[in-house]
Amino acid sequence: MKIVSWFLAAVITLSLAFSVSANPKRIGYIVNYGTHEWYQNVIFGLQSRADELGIELEVMDANLDINKQTQQAEDFMTKGVDVLMMTPVNEEGVVPILRKAKADGTPVVLEGNPAKGMTTLFAICDYDAGFKAGDAVGRILVSRGESEARVMDVGLPLLSATVLRSLGFMEALAQHVNAVKVHELDGSGMIDSSVEVASAALAADSNINVIYGINDGSALGGLQAWRAAGLPEDDLVVAGTGSEGLAFLNEMTKEGTPYLVEAAMFPEGVGYTGMNLAVDLFNGVDVPEHKVTPTLALTVHNFAKYYDFDKAGQKRAINFENVANIPTETKCTKYASDL
Amino acid sequence: MSKFFQKNETILFLILLLLLVFLSFYNPQFYSIQNINSILRSSSTVMIVAFGMTILLTSGEVDLSVGALLSFVTVIVMDVINISGSLFLGFFSVFIFCFLIGLINGLVRTVLNVNSLIGTLAMMLILQGSVYIYSMAAIYNTHLIPAFTFIGQGFVYNVPMPVIIMLVILPIFVFLLNYTRYGRYFTAIGSNPFSSNLSGINNNRYKLIGFIITSLLVGIAGIILASLMDTGQQGSAKGFELIVIAAVLLGGTSFKGGSGTILGTILGILILKVIDNGIILMSIPQEFQLVVPGVILILAVYFDTLRKEKNG
User: Can you name the residues that pair with B254 across neighbouring β-strands?
Assistant: First the structure.
């Protein structure tokens, strides 16, 4: 009887040991542009979750060089990482890496941009993020008794992701008021370029009441151009996108600022979600092709729920739990293929 | 009369005039005070740096690190003022830093004898990388000193402050290049370094001064840019060095040294900036803002070569 009990105990222990999924030991992440604030915060999110799960995370920066990214992917595979994570420098360039990883048996998780042959991707929905900001701005205009939105869109027309943000913003705005895009600009996603192009556009026609930026630098560049032109800020609403770093928090918390809405994409949350996805993939869990990460329209009234902002110390701390509780789309309303 | 029309500045002035007439017909808003201020404000930082670049190119040297330095300056000035709460300390740090960079550029050229195209390209890479060692994140204005904001965004009698700063610096360089022997030394060094050396001019000393002056001017432009952006931003001012060099060459300064005028440089910058402005007013894809200086750079160097060949 005693032998039978020992045997049963051993069987139960072994079956439990095999049924409880193990975490990967080492994960390699190749970021496409590591010096950008957005990616620094994505890495922070990845690292935070990796630390919680006891995973060793190694990060390499391709610095927008696809050849370098290919080499780094091969290095990671040679080192024998359990999962390879990548933000593709370009969608076509990573296809050979995906092929090689498949042959090598290394699971791959992509961030941001999809690529042919990928298994899974974690990324925000650009259209929906822009839509949420447009919806929030539309409500503000209606509450002010305005019936028309005359928009200066400080965009980036070369990238489908940023075009989707602008499109979502305008379509949501049009649900509340008559929305007219007065200026469609290319600010290159940089604050200095945005100031320059917005200054020229405002000189041509400053009869606008909404500035939309496809990222924080673009929105702030548009706003700085407005200020440099000496225009009144009373009726203006500025909306940015990304919650990339401290920029929007600094501006949004200023007294009397027109920067009222941020289409937050929570890069730390993106990283956190990505690490969970990598663990699931490693454990053979059925993962979605596109894991949508949370986005939300942040205002001065609700940002504290998601970010603890220390203005004096110029630091922000994300509340991962509250971000994780934001309802997310199962799939994006519009993709680049819809443009 | 024919000599008048052969003069480089006259041709540039006529080109500028043509552009102004065309754009004002296309969009009457072109002549609004706001648009003129916008063009002048965005020209000011380029002009300030271009004054130094004119001297450098005239002496036969070039500085490719001005864009990277400009970006670094925005970070330093914002950070130091945030920490110290003192405009003086912020500006002082910027000028010390720029002086050192100019000195290093100059010493690399004159002591190590490294071609300035290569030496300053290396400095550009060093600055582009080290700004991220200094700070990974952009530095935001937390000091909120109104006087700082006024530098880039303020007006005096409807004239933007950056334009006033440029106008203060302008006569110094016109005087230096045209009415002092030092200005003539720069031209002589660029024109024929051997004979200038034989005539007792210390070529290396003047080249060193040229690099330092250019870097210090970048310091001024960087303070204006930081104020305008209200941020110290790594990666800003991308391609700035090419716009400055293209404008200076378009203005008639020879890439091989020996000739150059501040008036030509000003006209060159205005032409480029009016074209930039026209691209936005006419809703032409803005990628042309990069294409235009590139094409102008080639044409300017080509015409400079033709001019030199014609002059024997």
Answer: none
**CATH says A18-118 is which class?**
alpha beta
User: Under an 8 A CB cutoff, do B32 and A196 touch?
Assistant: no
Number of CB pairs, chain A paired with chain B, less than 8 A apart: 102
Residue of B nearest to A224 (CA): B229
pTM (2 d.p.): 0.86
For β-strands A315-318 and A296-298, DSSP reports them as: unpaired
Give A190 to chain B, closest Cα distance, Å. Answer: 7
Q: How confident is the model at residue A17 (pLDDT cuts 50, 70, 90)?
A: very low
Domain assignment present for B111: yes
Domain ranges of chain A: 18-118, 126-265+331-338
Q: Which CATH architecture has domain A126-265+331-338?
A: 3-Layer(aba) Sandwich (3.40)
Residue A331's pLDDT is what? 87
State the residue range of the domain holding B179: 35-237
Distances A110 to A28, A39, A290, B95, B112 between C-alpha atoms, Å: 12, 14, 9, 45, 47
CB contact under 8 A, A35 and B141: no
Q: Indicate yes or no: CB of A199 within 8 angstroms of CB of B41.
A: yes
Where are the extended beta strands (E) located within B60-202? 139-140, 155-156, 159-160
For residue B10, tell me if it sits in a domain. Answer: no
Q: Is the pLDDT of residue A16 over 60?
A: no
Total domains present in chain B: 1
Q: Is residue B117 one of the residues assigned to a domain?
A: yes
- Looking at the predicted structure, is the pLDDT value of residue A35 above 90? no
Interface predicted TM-score of the whole assembly (ipTM), two decimals: 0.85
Question: Is the residue at B134 inside a domain?
Answer: yes
> What token pair was written down for A24?
């990967």
Which residue stretches of chain B have pLDDT < 50?
1
